[in-house]
Amino acid sequence: MCHSMDEYIDWREQLREAEADDDEPPAVDIAEPEIGEPEVEEPELDEPELGQAELDD
Questions:
Q1: Residues 9, 15: contact at Cβ < 8 Å?
Q2: Where are the residues of the annotated region Disordered (predicted)?
Q3: 39: Cβ–Cβ under 8 A, 6 or more apart, which residues?
Q4: DSSP symbols for the chain
Q5: What would the pLDDT profile of 27-57 be if each residue is shown by its tens digit?
Q6: What angle do CA 29, 34, 40 make, to 5 degrees?
Q7: Distances (CA, A) of 2 to 10, 11, 41, 51
């Protein structure tokens, strides 16, 4: 075996720790828009639709 026991990772222990962390609130607070506040929309791109080039020929 080419790996020593020092490099061994107990994935079961890491899984337990990750599941325990799921109960905690996220570190980043995601702000919801207030009622009446406009939502940020994605800008529309001025790219032609797929297949539109064939119709222009």
A1: no
A2: 17-57
A3: 33
A4: --S-GGG---HHHHHHHHHHHTTSPPSSPPPPPPTTSPPPPPPPP-PPPTTHHHHH-
A5: 666 677 677 766 667 767 776 666 555 555 5
A6: 80
A7: 17, 19, 54, 55
